[in-house]
């Protein structure tokens, strides 16, 4: 009774925070049951990978073989390490660790994506290190990061997006016309900063922070950058602006580097840039007719396109996560928008015959949402947002939505030898690929959706864009965002004095 009364009192004082308190003190029998089901799904996916594709990047479940879509770096295995650990699948984790220690070889004559290798492999390894404390993971992370570093040797410091892992020669893909991609260039900060913090070698952090310095020099008033940036000039090319493919995680990382550094003065610029981008974000939001679903437009020049990728469904989670950094008023506004957008994303799933979302949607007047590209490749973004919203609001509706999505995956995507995507969410015709992010992200977020909030607490961990939790470590270092050291130090001192903080 006393606890209940205290809880009621807290509810009155802290409003939204109550969801968090509830989920710490309660482990609901239904939650236990549901997370066991998700764990069983992970076991099925993992066992299939172990049986048919061990050491390969990904499993093709229909043909029951492995393929090396990332250069033969064991992408699924590395991407799965932390999920196995968090779910308590210790024997499986142990076997995977031995493979990392004895067989993972990065000396490959292969043109790797800097972005994909960073978020899956560097991120996966550092997360496994943070969770298990086993040094083999950090040594391997350092090995692959050293091979990626020459990609940043450009006149502007904006990286080339492809690099040969054995020889270190870097370039951009031909189809970008020589440009670098925004998300590919601005989503390595979390992993490389984490690596510097854990190895005491500043070079990783310095390299990736130069990118932010460069982008900050000409950051627009609405904080929205085109998806192509020229690595010679360091400025944006004329191109689409989007929170979907090729733009998404650049914005995500502005917020998360601030969280990773424990929101100190040393990372304040990231939060400022993120808040600037959120002003631009608001200008992209429109509503459908007749049902008034909120959606995020893409922008080409001055005009908005009524199109949204499922990939952009990470944004409700990002808004919810960032909402608490605003003062009252704005904080509620962003959280409310996050909830509205999550409802839209959930309806991307609910509106199809298979109850799985297509890759993108169009919004025509009077028709609400229409699926465009109709495949589903087991993507995580919507369940990721549901996870954040559940943690932040404590509203069980988000668990129900997540459970419904999980059941649709079970019904349509599960086969005897793993999980596959759908070529078409209207017909349910299956593809032949178990994407590594299904184990790294989709199943992990679903598991955490039904776990107490003390499991990977958002006060202690920040997830990279591939759902690898990295420990939050207070940033005390001096960051030079394009100012001289003296100027920068003075600026930090002035801000600190204003905020009553010490920076020495
Ligand atoms: C993942 O590799 C990451 O979440 C990335 O940021 C976007 N695409 C996939 C999942 O859809």
TrEMBL record:
Catalytic activity from the UniProt record: N(4)-(alpha-D-Man-(1->2)-alpha-D-Man-(1->2)-alpha-D-Man-(1->3)-[alpha-D-Man-(1->3)-[alpha-D-Man-(1->2)-alpha-D-Man-(1->6)]-alpha-D-Man-(1->6)]-beta-D-Man-(1->4)-beta-D-GlcNAc-(1->4)-beta-D-GlcNAc)-L-asparaginyl-[protein] (N-glucan mannose isomer 8A1,2,3B1,3) + 3 H2O = N(4)-(alpha-D-Man-(1->3)-[alpha-D-Man-(1->3)-[alpha-D-Man-(1->6)]-alpha-D-Man-(1->6)]-beta-D-Man-(1->4)-beta-D-GlcNAc-(1->4)-beta-D-GlcNAc)-L-asparaginyl-[protein] (N-glucan mannose isomer 5A1,2) + 3 beta-D-mannose; N(4)-(alpha-D-Man-(1->2)-alpha-D-Man-(1->2)-alpha-D-Man-(1->3)-[alpha-D-Man-(1->2)-alpha-D-Man-(1->3)-[alpha-D-Man-(1->2)-alpha-D-Man-(1->6)]-alpha-D-Man-(1->6)]-beta-D-Man-(1->4)-beta-D-GlcNAc-(1->4)-beta-D-GlcNAc)-L-asparaginyl-[protein] (N-glucan mannose isomer 9A1,2,3B1,2,3) + 4 H2O = N(4)-(alpha-D-Man-(1->3)-[alpha-D-Man-(1->3)-[alpha-D-Man-(1->6)]-alpha-D-Man-(1->6)]-beta-D-Man-(1->4)-beta-D-GlcNAc-(1->4)-beta-D-GlcNAc)-L-asparaginyl-[protein] (N-glucan mannose isomer 5A1,2) + 4 beta-D-mannose
Keyword Membrane among UniProt keywords: yes
Subcellular localization(s) per the UniProt record: Endomembrane system; Golgi apparatus membrane
Membrane topology: Single-pass type II membrane protein; Single-pass membrane protein
Family matches, as InterPro entries: 6hp_glycosidase-like_sf, Glyco_hydro_47, Glycosyl_Hydrolase_47, Seven-hairpin_glycosidases
GO cellular component: endoplasmic reticulum; Golgi membrane
Pathway where this protein functions: Protein modification; protein glycosylation
Organism domain of life: Eukaryota
Binding positions (Ca(2+)): 465
Entries under Gene3D superfamilies matching the protein: 1.50.10.10
Active site: 116 (proton donor), 248, 359 (proton donor), 381
Keywords tagged on the record: Calcium, Coiled coil, Disulfide bond, Glycoprotein, Glycosidase, Golgi apparatus, Hydrolase, Magnesium, Manganese, Membrane, Metal-binding, Signal-anchor, Transmembrane, Transmembrane helix
Top EC class of this enzyme: hydrolase
Main location: membrane
Annotated EC: 3.2.1.-
Matches recorded under Pfam families: Glyco_hydro_47
Molecular function GO terms recorded: calcium ion binding; mannosyl-oligosaccharide 1,2-alpha-mannosidase activity
Disulfide-bonded cysteines: 313-345
An example Gene Ontology biological process: N-glycan processing
Names of the cofactor(s): Ca(2+); Mn(2+); Mg(2+)
Function: Class I alpha-mannosidase essential for early N-glycan processing. Progressively trims alpha-1,2-linked mannose residues. Produces Man(5)GlcNAc(2) from Man(8)GlcNAc(2), but only Man(6)GlcNAc(2) from Man(9)GlcNAc(2). Has difficulty acting on the terminal mannose of the b-branch. Involved in root development and cell wall biosynthesis.
Protein name: alpha-1,2-Mannosidase
Organism: Cephalotus follicularis (Albany pitcher plant)
